[in-house]
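Review this:
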Amino acid sequence: MMTSINLHSAQPAASGILTMKTNPIISVLAIFGGLLLLQDPASADVKKDPKNKLAAIKGLDWLAGEQHRQGYWEANGGQYRVAMTALAGNAMLAEGSTTTRGKYAKQIAAAVDYLLEVSQSNGLIGYKNDYHYTYGHGFSMLFLSQVFGEEEDAGRRQRLKETLTKAVQFCAEAQTPDGGWGYVSAKDGNNFDEGSTCVTQVQGLRACRNAGIPVAKEIIDKAVEYIKRCTAPDGGVQYSIRGGGSRPPITAAAIACLFNSGEEYNDEFCQRLLAYCDKNITPTGNQAQFFGHWHYTHFYYAQVMYRLGDEKWGKYYPEIAKQIIRQQSANGTWKEGHVGPVYTTAINATILQIDNGYLPIYQR
């Protein structure tokens, strides 16, 4: 597996700053602008078309204008405030901004403060009466943990540490006996669990652990075992441990989750899931594909393709970027799907920026 160097607050090499990504074997070593420049020629073949970056920025600019004064974003009907805030903030982090620096510093800081404010004494980030609150909790752990590693304000950093520590504990207590998670905690949901919420929790937990927040290994191990038990003979991951048929979106998300959990590409189980996705997921296609979850599918599948290296990424990225840009509205947003434009715009902007290399959770 290739490695990468992350310097979230740095800017691209054209500004004279150390570039983000390098292979273990560095083939080009140069001096540029008085600073050491590490460059991977293989990555040069996968450089983004400038249109892709412009499309992402246009989407982020639209999101910036849609943020509410209190710091949150929301889906259609005022739903999913916590989840939308975390996803939109994460997309802005992927551009390279932090809470104190960059084009979207103000928006990111406001989003962080909102999520800290809605964190409950029991560790839940959000509200118990929120619709499907575990989505927001998982995405918030992911977003806030990425912020935590770069936070320069001592007060906010301490609050982040306390909030994330309690969030991990809540997540552990919300896990079902089978090792999964449902739309709400195991106690609130009578031990119901399903694949998509399981993935958000595992990725959030791994992001916290990577940031230095203690996470018990057995929590993630149980979740990985849950995913394996949900896998059908054809290599697809089912809706839940109780069945529901193989589903491309959940399978793509499961692989991203497994990679975050330390599973290797050449692991036999991962290979089965990858083979299933290779047969059932393509960058192109209409919105009716994948049970209506095209954006969810590629949010995770893009992470998988990027982690697999430049050969896979070089084939996948130009096609998915072309498909995304084709659907963008003149004002910068994407309006497909029933969840709402904040969701689709945050997802698409993240996909277009994954290989910026700023977020540790998406690194190779």
